[in-house]
Design a protein that fits this description.
Leucine-rich repeat, LRR (right-handed beta-alpha superhelix); six-stranded mixed beta sheet; 35% helix; alpha/beta; 4 domains
Length: 547
């Protein structure tokens, strides 16, 4: 930028307007204007901060005048934002969104503001849990969450930083508590619950005793089934499958047959191999244990994105689990056959959201939480409307509510989907399911299997298969060729961002399933809106950093 100096005439005064004694003309030079250059170069805000703040703006529909560069020029950053300025770029160090009408959960995008020192989200309508990823913000010194509808346990890492004086944490005590205060509450509640349960149990036993005295009943070894669930005999299973006439699936456990109940309802009957039932006298095989785990879990979990349980058979000769029939089979087979030609990007997004909601229920809706341990496209079933449901709970693990991590002696799961951290450390938690689900998302967008067979005959994990395409910003190479030309770039790159977050090496750096559900819904919204390719380069750069 150039600025004009003051004219010389101001310095010369009256002399500047007088001619010389021997001159016949007025002065030729009245003044001189001298221009000097002053550098006002401004650096731009760091790309990852721009992506994060734009995502926050979009997620919450922030009603502030936010346009241009968040931190530049220095004198006029965005409202509620303060920045750190250095010789390379600017980064956001303070964000005040108090009383900004924010709704929903705390978005994953906040974790990408890596230099954030102060975050004020008070007096909004934020709900669900306080996310653990806030503790990953190494420079965060002030966090205000008061005046929201957050609930549950404050993450241990946040409480640890607060108690160490590294973080000023402001929360409402009504719905939030740390692990110790929650235990104190439980100490009061548990005796009352136990006493009530004993009384109720006593009356139930009295009623059962009266009924048993009045009539003889035939006892059986299986668990009592809730209303609508049945215990079938082998002969009944043979009858409803028309003597095991139609095979609709196969696996290491056995064979799945199509069946039909008396009312015409179609069902799927998963028969356990006879050779797997008993290993030796007095000891059950692994398959038998998995059958027991799955049967017990299916009796207690109920969600529209989990395969519905109809009943089971365990009469000594055979074991079977009976589910609702899913007309379009499993997602792995569906992606591999010609039907996938009609599987649009929108339908794939719906399948991803359905599956994520099923896992979200297992992790956050069940008490205690349940880790599936075998999340894969073969265990995601599709009904006639292509609605997705999680199935096969034989390897699932129930966690005590106060202990979300277990050391396992054996690593269970399917090659290509197994969490590398779990494989390395034998430590299992819900983030192991998150990794597996990230692989499922990559299969959905690429159309490839979890283990990709290359042209030279080599086989690589799909996570490594997508890396070169991300680095070279080649969307066409990533997307299933059956989708090319019909996918919103913004939606696709956002989807890839979520998938790559899920498959991060460290479980603590992966999102939770409720965060994933929210992010996938944004992908769907972007896909339906057909948004322009506005921030493709920035989003791709952000994904590349995660590899």
């Amino acid at each position: 930028m150039f600025r004009a100096s003051e004219p010389i005439c101001d310095c010369l005064g009256p002399l500047a307007h007088k001619k010389t004694a021997d001159s016949t003309l007025p002065p030729v030079l009245n003044a001189i204007e001298i221009f000097t250059a002053q550098s006002l170069d401004e650096f731009f805000t760091a790309t990852e901060d721009v992506i994060a703040i734009e995502s926050i703006k979009s997620t919450y529909q922030v009603g502030k005048t936010w346009s241009g560069d968040p931190c530049s020029p220095r004198l006029f950053p965005w409202e509620g934002i303060r920045c750190s300025y250095n010789n390379s770029n600017h980064q956001i160090k303070s964000l005040n969104l108090s009383s900004s009408r924010l709704q929903g959960q705390i978005a994953l995008a906040f974790r990408n503001l890596s230099l954030l020192e102060s975050l004020d989200l008070s007096n909004n309508n934020l709900q669900e849990n306080v996310p653990e990823f806030l503790a990953d913000l190494k420079h965060l010194r002030f966090l205000n969450l008061k005046g929201n509808k957050l609930a549950g346990v404050i993450p241990k890492p946040l409480m640890k930083k607060s108690k160490a004086g590294l973080l000023t944490l402001s929360v409402d005590g009504k719905n939030l508590c740390d692990s110790s205060s929650c235990r104190d509450k439980n100490k009061i509640i548990v005796p009352i619950v136990v006493a009530t349960s004993v009384i109720v149990l006593f009356f139930v036993l009295v009623i059962i005793w009266i009924i048993l005295r009045g009539r003889k009943i035939r006892a059986y070894s299986g668990p009592l089934l809730p209303p609508g669930k049945r215990r079938f005999t082998y002969n009944e299973v043979s009858s409803i499958t028309n003597n095991f006439n139609k095979v609709i699936g196969k696996g290491g456990f056995g064979i799945v047959y199509l069946g039909c109940l008396e009312d015409g309802t179609e069902i799927a009957v998963k028969m356990i191999k006879d050779s797997s039932l008993k290993k030796s006298k007095g000891s059950s095989s692994r398959v038998s244990k998995e059958f027991q785990v799955e049967a017990e879990l299916l009796l207690t979990v109920h969600h529209r994105n989990l395969a519905s349980f109809v009943g089971y058979c365990d009469d000594g000769r055979s074991m079977a689990l009976i589910y609702e029939y899913m007309a379009n089979g499993n997602l792995q087979d569906y992606l591999s056959n010609e039907n996938a030609e009609g599987l649009s990007w929108e339908k794939r997004l719906h399948i991803a959201i359905d599956s994520a909601q099923g896992l979200e229920y297992l992790h956050h809706g069940c008490r205690p939480p349940i880790v599936h341990r075998d999340v894969k496209t073969a265990n995601i079933l599709l009904n006639d409307n292509l609605e997705a449901k999680i199935a096969d709970f034989g390897l699932s693990k129930v966690f005590p509510a106060d202990d979300l991590s277990h050391v396992m002696t054996d690593v269970m799961g399917t090659p290509g989907y197994v969490d590398p951290e779990y494989y390395r450390t034998f430590m299992l938690n819900e983030k192991s399911d998150v990794y597996s689900f990230g692989v499922v998302l990559l299969e959905l967008i690429t159309g490839q299997r979890a283990i990709v067979k290359m042209e030279d005959g080599d086989k690589i994990n799909i996570v490594h298969f997508v890396e070169p395409f991300i680095e070279t910003r080649e969307l066409d190479g990533l997307v299933d060729q059956r989708l090319r030309g019909s996918v919103s770039p913004d939606s696709a790159w956002k989807f890839m961002e979520v998938a790559m977050y899920c498959v991060r090496n460290r479980g603590s750096n992966r999102p939770t399933m409720n965060q994933i559900v929210a992010e996938l819904k944004q992908c769907l919204a972007a896909g339906l809106a057909g948004e322009p390719q506005s921030h493709k380069k920035k989003v791709v750069n952000e994904i590349t950093k995660q590899i």
